[in-house]
Each structure stands twice: as structure tokens, then as C-alpha cells.
Prior knowledge:
The structure holds two protein chains of two kinds. Chain A is α/β, with parallel strands linked by helices. Chain A has 13 helices and twelve strands. Chain A has helices at 16-27, 41-57, 71-84, 101-112, 130-136, 159-168, 188-191, 240-278, 305-314, 334-338, 343-347, 363-379, 382-394; strands at residues 4-5, 65-68, 92-96, 116-120, 141-145, 173-176, 195-199, 210-214, 282-284, 295-300, 317-318, 349-353. In chain A, helix 1 packs antiparallel against helix 8 (240-278), helix 2 (41-57) packs parallel to helix 8 (240-278) and helix 9 crosses helix 12. The mean pLDDT of chain A is 96. Chain B is of the alpha+beta class. Chain B has one domain (6-120): Sufe protein. Chain: A. In chain B, 42% of the residues lie in helices and 21% in strands. Chain B has five helices and three strands; from the N terminus they run αβββαααα. Chain B has a three-stranded antiparallel sheet.
Amino acid sequence: MKTINLDYAAGAPLDRAxxxxxxxxxxxxxxNPSSGHSLGDKPRKAMEEARQNIALLIGADSKGIVFxxxxxxxxxxxxxxxxxxxxxxxxxxxxxxxxxxxxxNQLKSLQKEGYKVTLLPVDSYGAVNPEQLEKAITDQxxxxxxxxxxxxxxxxxxxxxxxxxxxxxxIPFHTDASAAAGWMELDVxxxxxxxxxxxxxxxxxxxxxxxxxxxxxxxxxxLIEGGIQERGLRAGTENIPAIVGFGEAAKVARExxxxxxxxxxxxxxxxxxxxxxxxxxxxxxxxxxNRLSRNLHVSVSFVExxxxxxxxxxxxxxxxxxxxxxxxxxxxxxxxTALGLSPELAQGSLQLTxxxxxxxxxxxxxxxxxxxxxxxxRNMSPLYHQYLKEENSNA
Amino acid sequence: MPEYSEKVMDHFSKPRNIxxxxxxxxxxxxxxxxxxxxxxxxxxxxxxxxxxxxxxTFGCGAAIAVSSMVSEMAKxxxxxxxxxxxxxxxxxxLGGLPGxxxxxxxxxxxxxxKAIEDYEEKQKVSAG
Lengths: 395, 128
């Protein structure tokens, strides 16, 4: 059976050029960058080249790039690392309600320690309103953390406007750019951010590759203490193959940014039109235009996401859902809840993310399958039958 | 995706007895969209026996398989026998359910029992 992956946000194959570049660092160039002898030279050089490529992707100074093993770790280093570094003038942290769990769960822990947290609401598209941030900032605020784009629904945040408000009050601003990096132009100067999170596996680099950009002058406390790797901000022997792959993926992403982004936006729009033209009662989640090019997020009214996901898998199509049944915690996605989406629409949500093997020829098949599956599940849905009855009585 | 048994996958992919019986003797509803699962059972009772049973289900793979299994188990049973069908039995008949699905999706027997109660209430009213 043919398979169609529409869940590349969860995992994507390595770019071939990336893998080729990594291989020798497992076997021949295996040295330790910290070594005093020459076996460490090549890995060290490769690591610095990677750092340079990653810095270029976000318009940063390469000295500000700290390698981590994931975006989650980078988010932890940004938030906890900043909070724990030295005495702070206050105890108030602001983030958006649609941040990744690696930000939100830290804030929960910090709240238990006595910190005060404000989670900014979002509009129905998932965007933070700068006025809300302005109102939330107090003289006790010590950190603002708002993502560049939402990993689930793809909505891009007005980071420039938001960071300007924090900068006015000399409050450090962190942005989790792990969903955005590699897919849209990023420049830490234009964005006005002090800390920025990246993930290599989100743009065809290897899993286990993440980084935090730290603006010069911003003090952090390391989460992992030990040796002085990464300027003392992250102890432990560097994962050179992953770092090299990360750097190469950043280079390829930068060189192809416009082309990739245009290609995916066109393909995404074609898929969206096809689905909306032929399947009734679909709901678009996230901003209609101001969103990541490879992301499409829809809710299929009257049905539940896990059932959709399972049926689509039977048809060879892989997707993910924000329904409570597909989450380990059995809660529907906090992002969809923050949009003010009804429980029923949150349950029937599907996240579709395009990737290297996505092609226009597959759109008719995807549309036909989702249409059939939606019809089949609606036919057995009490919510759909209720809707039909109401329609009939109104007619 | 959770690990479902072959039996669950069979009932999920080929659910039996979908729909609503016409002019039902009893109706039982459980769940809501917030928790993610919702079931509506309708039964036709004749001579204290469940002559026909159908359901409508909004929910995950487990919820659909559970509904389908309950409908098969209940069909043709006397009301007393049907009352004894438990959620646990349903899960066993399905070859087990993943732990986290045991209480949120395994509501089929409850919905069936509610339909029977509804029928019995109506009987009392018409008898009284």
C-alpha cells in the first residue's frame, strides 16, 4: 500500500547531504574537541563551522550559539538558566498560553517555588496581542517568553512588536523558534530577542540536535554543570555528529529558504483548497495567511481525532491530532483550547505537516480518503445526527 | 496510536449495528465531547428481550469498538442478562483495552444499562 506522511513535524528524514557530512564523525574523525592533541582538531573545526552556519540562519554572532540535545533542553536553559542566574529584581514571568510544554511545565514548577506567572491569551487564530503583553508587564517582570510560531497550528507571532515592549523595560525576551527556524527568515537583531531556541530535526537535521542563542551580556546558569564545554553553559562531551548534521541542515535550509517556503505554501494551499472544496463542515485552525508554510491544521466537525487518525492510517496516510484520546495525558491540546475552539472541534482536529516527499499528485487521494472517512465516522456520530435533526427542523 | 488488540481493530474497522432503532423502547446516552467519547444506545424490547440494539458513537478507536461489541453482546439477551454485561466483560471480549482507555472509552455497558432503565421507567409510567 502506498503511504503518505503528513506528519513531518513529528519526524522527517535527514537531508542526504546532512547524513553524508555526519558519517565520518562517527568513525574516522571521532576525536574529542577538548583534546590537547590533533585528533580533536577536525571535530573542533567542524563544530565551529556548524556553529557559524546555525548563527547565519538566525542572523546571530556564532559566539552566542550554545548546543543542546533538543529544543526542550534549550527552552529549559533559557527559562530556568536565566531565572537561576544571580539575584533578580522581581519574580514575575510572562509567556503565552500556547507555548510548548517545555516552557509551560517549567513555569508550573517555578510557580510552586513562588514565582508568579502570567500566561497571555491568544486570539482565535492563536496570535498574542501586544497590548495584552503591555498590560501584563509589571516592575517585577524578569522574563518574557513567546514563541516565534506555533508548532501545532503554525500561527506566526508578532515577535518584533512583543520584544520591543520588553526591551523598553529592559526585560529579557526569549522566543522558542524551533517550529519556525529553517522555514522563515529569522534575524535576532530585527526580532529584538535575547534568547532564541532552535531544533535541527525540525528542518531535516538529526534528532538530538538543538541550540540556544544567547545574546552577549545575558547571564545564564547552566542546567548541566561539569566541564567548560559551550562556554560553561552546558557540560558534557559534545555530540559532534549531531552538531555537524545540525550545521549542515542549517546551511541547506538557509540556501533553500525561499524556495522551500514558497513550494510548501503553494502545496499547502492546494491541499487546503482541495479539502475544503470537497469535504463539508471542515474548520481551519490557525491564521489563514500568517502561518508556517508547511503547516495545515483543520478540524473535522462531529468526529473524534483518534478515530480519524486510525482510519487514515488504514488508508496509508499519517497525521497527528490534538484530540484528548491521542494524548498520553488524555487532554485535548492546550493550544486548541486557548483558541477558544469548542471541545468537539478540538477533538476532531488534524495537524498536517508537509515534507520532502509531499507532492501535488497525492492531494486527490488524500482528499478522497479523508472525505470518505469523515462521512463514515459522521454516519455513526450522535453529534452529526443531532445536527441533521436540527437542520431538518429549521428547514 | 495505542496498541489495540486484533478484536478491537476488527470492530473498529467493521463496526456492527450502527444507527438508531426506529421507535426505540429505550434510549441511553453517556459521555460528552469534552472527555472525547459519547455514546447513544437505542434498544427495541419485545417480551423482556432485546430484540434489536443500535448505537451512535463519537469517540476514539476504543469507544467505537466497545459500542460495537456491546451491541453484539446485548442482542437477543433478556433484560436481566443484558443488565449483567459489565464494562470489564466488554473489555475482556475485546481482548483487552489499553490502560488509559479503560475508564474513558469503556462506557458501552453503561449506555446500554441506561437504555434499559429508560425502557423500564417508561413501562412503570404506562403501567401506573
